Every structure is written in structure tokens, then in C-alpha cells.
Amino acid sequence: MVMVTMKSYGVSVSIVLSAVFVASIVIVFIFGCFSDNNGIGSFYANSEEEIKIPVVELMTTAARTHIGEARAVLSSEFSSKFNSTAIVTKKENSKLEQGLASARAAIRKAALNRNKSIIYKNNDLLSGQIYRNPNAFYRSYVEMERRFKVYVYEEGELPLVHDGPCKDIYTSEGRFIHEMEQGNNRFRTRNPEAAHVYFMPFSVTWMVKYLYHPNTYNVTPLKDFVSDYVRIISTKHSFWNKTQGADHFMISCHDWGPVTSQGNAFLYNTSIRVLCNANSSEGFNPKKDVSLPEIHLYGGKVPSKLLSPPPFNSSRPRLAFFAGGVHGPIRPILLQQWKNRDSDIRVYEYLPKDQDYYNFMLQSRFCLCPSGYEVASPRIVEAIYAECIPVILSDHYVLPFSDVLRWEAFSIQVDVSKIPRLKEILMAVSKDEYLRLKEGLRAVRRHFVLNKPVQRFDVFHMILHSVWLRRLNLRVG
Ligand SMILES: *[C@@H]1O[C@H](CO)[C@@H](O)[C@H](O)[C@H]1NC(C)=O
Ligand SMILES: *[C@@H]1O[C@H](CO)[C@@H](O)[C@H](O)[C@H]1NC(C)=O
Ligand SMILES: *[C@@H]1O[C@H](CO)[C@@H](O)[C@H](O)[C@H]1NC(C)=O
Ligand SMILES: *[C@@H]1O[C@H](CO)[C@@H](O)[C@H](O)[C@H]1NC(C)=O
Ligand SMILES: *[C@@H]1O[C@H](CO)[C@@H](O)[C@H](O)[C@H]1NC(C)=O
Ligand SMILES: *[C@@H]1O[C@H](CO)[C@@H](O)[C@H](O)[C@H]1NC(C)=O
């Protein structure tokens, strides 16, 4: 349990982020009380102005997957003993906080209905099976649409701020920034007083392009930029200091997103960081940070072969496929074990020139997705598009949207230590189980698609929903 109590400008701001670990399919809520003597993570432990109120918080906490990773989870159960109590709020926050309290109450109520077979009439949700708690997710999503407001800081100049890459490997970073800057979505507000969260629209990928000196491995210029950026917005506006950045967020798909965010200690420790490189061993904290899917769009487009995968029941001759360089800690193990070893498990370092990467994916039942230099792999989303069951081979990777999605409904995670037994493990998946996973992939695809203009439940909205959940966990008053 972590308790953070802060004070600034005579207004006490308290944030309680605490976690309760519950067994595997996770049911979590966050509960905490302000007290003088809980100094864990306390920035200003001896504030004389602490408000002592019981605070009951909603969902999102760490849970354990079978590979022992921390995950954030949208709660599927709430005990009535944790009913939300009256919220003590201050001035302008009170209306916003009341709205959030209503949202929390509505989600809690919906979460009690655990009927997974529910399919909403208006086709909003296709399949209950892929969600931890479809009712809670649906209610939370609708509450987000109804209420959530994001203020986008106007400070900073092109190209480093207000822009980002919209093609190739870091697409998800740039597309999100563009959508917040220029999109016609309902979430952006120009009135910072009306916002629930504050977006800092800088692009780490563009910092690498414009500020980094190649081959130096020196990220100081990037950290300095972030440090300056936070200094500017926290001097010009009052919002950062109120929560020490806890209701602020950044996004980055670049491998160096996490290290760049170290430019400001509060950004790193307290703000919501939306990151592709969601390595829980490197400071990624699923209670407050958001795992961003890596979506590789060559030239900004989904490869045409992946737009329409083969008919659902058409046969796929190959068991498993991987092709890619020997990057990072896991791939050497995979390549050493399986490269040129077995005609069912096609593992290549480089594909022969006359072979097509996507054809391999479309003809394989399972697509191996090992981490490379960083934990995320664009293969996961490619596999979803190709309806090839992703086999996730990673350590310390917090999977995207795992607070609401049941990844076990559409993917397989294999412990890195079991790579030698990969064939045995995949062969043991029954026909029925395989079809179930494939149906899961069909259902989840919409959550990993980039649209322009954005569409309900697509990846833009899923990212925003992850931020929304983390904001719901925060009480500012
Ligand atoms: C919590 O709320 C439920 C339903 O609104 C109510 O029945 C229950 O008595 C409440 N529990 C507490 C401890 O207030
Ligand atoms: C779950 O929902 C489905 C569809 O709405 C309904 O047919 C079924 O009876 C429900 N099951 C339970 C246990 O409530
Ligand atoms: C926020 O705090 C910093 C550091 O204490 C201070 O320099 C800055 O002026 C404050 N911002 C505002 C708007 O008062
Ligand atoms: C951030 O977290 C690190 C590691 O837990 C700690 O050493 C540091 O003091 C924290 N900084 C702030 C500003 O909270
Ligand atoms: C695929 O085949 C199974 C039986 O093997 C059948 O139940 C199912 O309806 C088929 N799905 C589609 C989409 O054709
Ligand atoms: C994740 O972080 C740990 C700890 O720094 C590191 O050993 C590991 O290599 C990282 N994983 C990847 C794929 O980079």
C-alpha cells in the first residue's frame, strides 16, 4: 500500500494509491485512509494541513499473471463495505470530482453483474469473453464518453511538441498526439479548469530525431527537454503543482520513453506515462502508467494483406512462425532453440528474399512474439490483424489494456524458460481451444485498430480509457 500526501499552496492534496493483491483473476479495489504516520512515498509527510477523510478508491491495481507479472486490472467485484464515502473537495474541483464519484458508483454497480454472455443490443460490445468484466468495462467506457475532458498544453513548439511520427514503428505515439491536437473528438477541452487530466504533447521520437547525437548514447538532452517542459507548464499554470503531476500524462512509443521521463522525478514517479516500453522491471508502474500497443505501419498504412485475413475456418498449414533479428535477451534463446530445427516451427533470423512475411503470418496458427531490445513487439498487433494467435514471449511486460482485457482469451503466454518446450505446448492446444482463441482475436481486433477519424472502441479510445481509469483512481480535493 502506498500513500501519498501532498501539500501545496495551503491546499492539501491527497492521493491514495494503494493496492491489494488478490488471486489470479483479479478483483481489486483501492482503499486507504489518510493518516499522519504513513510515510511510505509521502512527499510532505509532516503537513499540518492534512484533511483526514476516509477515501475509497476504485479499481486498478497490480495483479499477477501466470508469468508473475504485475498488471492493472479493472475490478470485477466490489465489496459493499467499500462504498464510496462523501468526498471532501475544494472549490473548483468539486463539480469535476462529483462527476467522477458518480462514474465510480455506476461502474461499481455494473461490475456486480458478472454475466459474461451479455452482448449489448446496439452492438457496442461483440463478445463478453475477451473482457475481465464486460459490464464494468462497458459502463466505464460510456462514463468516459459522457464525462472525460482532457486539456492539451499549448506550450512548446513544433516539431518536438504538438506533433509526432504517424508512420513506421512509433506510429501509436504520433497518431495519439495528432488526434489530441487536431482530431474532432469530444474529449479535448480548451478550458483547463474543466479538465480531468492534462496532456503534455511532446514526442520522444522527435526528440531522438532532433536532439540526440547519434552513437553517443547520451539521453541528457532529451531529459533536459522534458525537465524544461515541466518547469514551463508548472510555472505558467497552477495545475501541475496541485497534484505534483498526478493528473498529467505523456505518451511515448519510443524505447527511450521511460528514460526520457526521468527528466522530471514527479513525471516519472507520479504522472501517468503511456509507454510502449512497459517494462515493470524498469519503473513501469501499472497502477499509474499505461501500456501502449506498438503498431508498426509502414508508410502509415496497415499492410493490405492484413486488412482481410483468410476465412475463419480455412486451414493454416504451419504451426508457428517468427522472423526477426537477434535483439535483446529473449530472441537469442528462441533462435538457438528453434532456428532451422523443425518444419512446424518456422523460426528465421532473416526471411529468405523470396518469402513474404505476412503470408507466413496468414498461414500460421501461432505467431511468436518475443521481446526485442524493449518489451513491446509490433508482432503482437500484426498477429491480431492476421488472426494468428500471438504467443507472447517476454519478461516483465505489462500487456496493453490488460486492466480490462483478458489476454488469455486471445493469446498464449509462454514462460521464457519453457521455450525449449514450445512445440509441445502449442501442439497441446486443442482444436476447440484454438478456435476459441481465434474468435477472441476477431473480437479484440477493433481495440487495436487506428482509425481516421477515430471510431468508438478503437485504439485511440482504449488508450484514453486506460488514462481515464487511472484518473478515476485519483481523488483530488
Ligand atoms: C453500500 O451500498 C449498498 C447499496 O447501495 C448498501 O446496501 C449497503 O448497506 C452499503 N454499505 C455500507 C457499509 O454503507
Ligand atoms: C446472461 O445474459 C444472457 C443474455 O443477456 C441471458 O440470456 C442469460 O440468461 C444471462 N445469464 C444469467 C445467469 O443471468
Ligand atoms: C509550482 O512550484 C514550483 C516549484 O516549487 C514553482 O517554481 C512554481 O512557481 C509553482 N507554480 C505556480 C504556478 O505557482
Ligand atoms: C522517485 O522515486 C525514486 C525511487 O523510488 C525516489 O528515489 C525519488 O526520491 C522519487 N522522487 C520523487 C520526487 O518523488
Ligand atoms: C468454423 O467451424 C466450426 C466447426 O469446426 C463451426 O462451428 C463454426 O461455425 C465455423 N465458423 C465460421 C466462422 O465459419
Ligand atoms: C526489462 O528490464 C529489465 C531490468 O532492467 C532488463 O533486464 C530487461 O532486459 C528488460 N527487458 C527488455 C526486453 O528490454
Automatic annotation (TrEMBL):
Its main location: Golgi. GO terms for cellular component: Golgi membrane. The keyword Transmembrane applies. The chain crosses the membrane at residues 12-32. It is found in: Golgi apparatus membrane. One of its GO terms (molecular function) is glycosyltransferase activity. Gene3D superfamilies: Glycogen Phosphorylase B. Residues 145-428 form the Exostosin GT47 domain. Keywords: Glycosyltransferase, Golgi apparatus, Membrane, Signal-anchor, Transferase, Transmembrane, Transmembrane helix. The keyword Magnesium does not apply. It is a single-pass type II membrane protein. Belongs to the glycosyltransferase 47 family. This is Glycosyltransferase. It comes from Forsythia ovata. The lineage of its organism: Eukaryota, Viridiplantae, Streptophyta, Embryophyta, Tracheophyta.
